[in-house]
Design brief:
Layout lengths: L1 E8 L2 E8 L8 H5 L5 E8 L2 E8 L7 H4 L9 H5 L5 E7 L2
Antiparallel strand pairs: 1-2, 2-5, 3-4
Length: 94
């Protein structure tokens, strides 16, 4: 299951997506995030509890501003994920 954290507004789309089927809960992305917006949480997947990464609630509507320094080429949470469970959507309107 892919969860999208972020938003779309008049200036573009700003999302961090985490694929809970791929995430192994290692926490590497949490350690590498310079703004500390990620956390581990337990979610129900296929009738089992699984520890996965997610974006902290207080940052979900601030992705554009909080993650601005990492985009477009130095997305540390994405680069640190060996399972390729984290991706981003960063489309600024021109």
């Amino acid at each position: 299951m892919i969860t999208y954290y972020g938003y779309k507004d008049g200036s573009g789309e700003y999302f961090i997506s985490i694929d809970s089927d791929k995430c192994n809960g290692c926490g590497e992305c949490i350690e590498k995030c310079p703004k500390k917006i990620l956390k581990l949480e337990t979610v129900m997947i296929n009738l089992e509890d699984k520890l996965v990464s997610s974006v902290k609630e207080e940052f979900r509507r601030q992705i554009k501003y909080v993650c601005n320094n990492c985009h477009p080429d130095n997305i540390l949470c994405v680069l640190s994920c060996k399972e390729k469970a984290i991706t981003t959507i960063w489309n600024q309107e021109r």
